[in-house]
Amino acid sequence: MAMLAWLESSGLSTWVREGETIWAFPTILTLHTFGMGLLVGCSVVISLRLLGIGRGMALAPLRSLFRVMWGGFWLNLITGSLLFAADATRRGTDPLFMTKLVFVAIGVSTVLLIQRSVFEAPEGATAPSSGRGLAILSLTAWTAAVTAGRLLAYVS
Amino acid sequence: MDLTIPHLHLLLNHVPTVGMVASVGLLLLALVRRNDHLLHASLELLFVVALATLPVYLTGVAAEGAIEGMEGVAAPAIEAHETAALLGFVWMQITGFFAWLALWQSRRLARLPRVSVGAVLGLSAITMALMGRAATIGGEIRHPEILANPEAVTVGAPAGWLQSGVIADFVTQYPWVWPAAEALHFLGLCLVLGVLLAVNLRILGAMKALSFASLHRLLPWGMLGFALNLITGMLFFIAAATQYTENIAFLWKVIFLGLAGAHFLYLTVFSRTWALNVGTEAAPLDKLVAAGGIGAWVGVIYWGRMLPFIGNAF
């Protein structure tokens, strides 16, 4: 708790929270939204394909989307950390925020697992069923993560 | 000359009525002449008219706030016009959606399915009638001379749930509705952005091992996100209109939304992108349009997210 209070009172946190400039909280939050769109959006496309939508699309070229997704991930890790630091004592003890983090962790893990098992697996080594299961888990986790994240603005 | 919002509404309000007459006329002509190009053009026009109807409705609500209480304004006619306009708007969007779906199908099947064309024809006939009705009642607001009996301004359109007052009450009455709609709005954003990124990145040169046609298959999922966000977005707008009608960020958002919608139609129907085969490089102009399409969505998201900061929304 003391650490959360220290984090929240740091100069950077204060600037993010109270800075009277568009570049502080508003821009960081907007970048966080873009990061979500890149990561979750591309992840949804890949999951849809794994579930059989657009079978005409070869899987391998979709690998390029992972670069976009990891770009979104790092953007949101940074902007998310800043947003957390600005409001650390409240978010650090908020069950809804913890719920969001859990679902984000599951979502990111599914992205990593899909990348490993479907896109980087040796030719013919992938059982199609594993891709489908991961796709469903991924879609569920991202839906929950985005919903929990959005609700943070209203519930807590 | 300063263009005021009521003035803008008076300029734009011709688009749905005149546009519907033009597109339905074109559609009938195409069917009579059995001309496929004309048929496609009429469906494309229908989609554009549906897109252009969004700012017509939005500026109408803004104009209401500006002229309410003015002398010579028939207040009951405003209410009746708003209700009629909302009904027309909803049918217009449904018509635009099915016109788009028919165009998308015609790409995949290499012909326009008769069922889809029939559905669009029926829907547009209904929409044309509803829009004509909304426009007539709108005229009564300021033009008592069009009435046989000037005292008989249209009042009290048939009650139902599809009225802005009822919808606004629903959204504000239950504390869960607004947050739930916000969550859906963000999920819709992810869906539409993901699909459009994939398609546009292909045109820009990533994933060249995929044909454009194979990615075209994803477009309905983007349209699903678009539709989800139109519905949830309209809930916000109807429930708290003034925080958007007096918001510069919202004006920009709607402008970028118009560009994004037009670009969506481009991706659905244009032949040059459709012809991009496995390994084919797109022409520089098509790449520019693809970059512009991504830019339009960046604009929509940026101005949407900035609604509470540059503007005054919550």
Mean pLDDT of chain B: 92
What is the first-to-last residue Cα distance of chain A? 18 Å
Helical amount of chain B: over 70%
Topology order of chain B in helix (H) and strand (E) letters: HHHHHHHHHHHHH
Number of domains of chain B: 2
Q: Count of DSSP helices of chain B? A: 13
Structural class of chain A: mainly alpha
Count of individual beta strands of chain B? 0
Most residues in contact: chain pair: A-B, 38 and 35 residues
Can you tell me the residue ranges of chain A where pLDDT is under 50 for at least 5 consecutive residues? Answer: none
The best one-word shape of chain A is elongated
* Overall outline of chain B: globular
What pattern of helices and strands is seen along the backbone of chain A? HHHHHHH
Give the strand content of chain A: under 5%
Low-confidence stretches of chain B: none
Q: Can you summarize the main beta sheet of chain B? A: none
Q: Provide the β-strand percentage band of chain B.
A: under 5%
Assembly classification? heterodimer
Radius of gyration of chain A: 18 Å
Average predicted local confidence, pLDDT of chain A: 93
Please tell me about this protein's structure.
The complex is a heterodimer of chains A (156) and B (314). Chain A is built from seven helices and no strands. Chain A has helices at 2-9, 11-18, 25-50, 64-86, 88-91, 95-119, 128-151. The mean pLDDT of chain A is 93. Chain B has two domains: 1-159; 163-314, no CATH class. In chain B, 76% of the residues lie in helices and 0% in strands. Chain B is mainly alpha-helical and 314 residues long. The A-B interface holds A 22, 25-26, 29-30, 33-34, 36-38, 40-45, 48, 53-54, 56-58, 60-62, 64-65, 68, 142-143, 146-147, 149-151, 153-155 and B 178-179, 182-183, 186-187, 189-195, 197-198, 201, 206-211, 213-215, 217-218, 221, 298, 301-302, 305-306, 309-310.
